[in-house]
Design goal:
- There is one protein chain.
- By secondary structure, the protein is mainly β.
- The chain contains no helices and 11 strands.
- Strand 4 and strand 5 form a beta hairpin.
- The radius of gyration is 13 Å and the shape is globular.
């Protein structure tokens, strides 16, 4: 079973940038789509962005479109989330996940494998 490890979270001010990374342990990275989800305090886990297995097709939530960009490097078994112009409402635990499909979907039930999460806190 693939192991996913997120990194790059931290405490930043509104307007700052962060880049999250998700390192996968398995050599089959590149077979399936990957996604980023987040969960704020007292909120449900929500979709942030997803990318197909090749990196060509991407899907971003409306709330982050134009500010966040998902990418992946299959040669390094790593996925990224570049986050610019961060807002206090972006504060959450961010999780990476591997899909059971090749296309980038928004439904978290399509993702059977999850990392432990990395915390992003944006102060105003």
């Amino acid at each position: 079973q693939v192991k996913l490890v997120e990194s790059g979270g931290g405490l930043v001010q509104a307007g700052d940038s962060l880049t999250l990374s998700c390192a996968a342990s398995e050599g089959t990275f590149g077979t399936y789509a990957m996604g980023w989800f987040r969960q704020g305090a007292g909120k449900r886990r929500e979709f942030v962005a997803a990318i197909d297995r090749t990196g060509e097709f991407k899907n971003h939530a409306n709330s982050v479109k134009g500010r966040f960009m998902i990418s992946r490097n299959n040669a390094d078994n790593t996925m990224y989330l570049q986050m610019d112009n961060l807002k206090p409402e972006d504060t959450a635990i961010y999780y990476c996940a591997e899909s059971q499909f090749r296309s980038p979907t928004r439904d978290r039930t399509d993702y059977p494998h999850w990392g432990q999460g990395t915390t992003v806190t944006v102060s105003s």
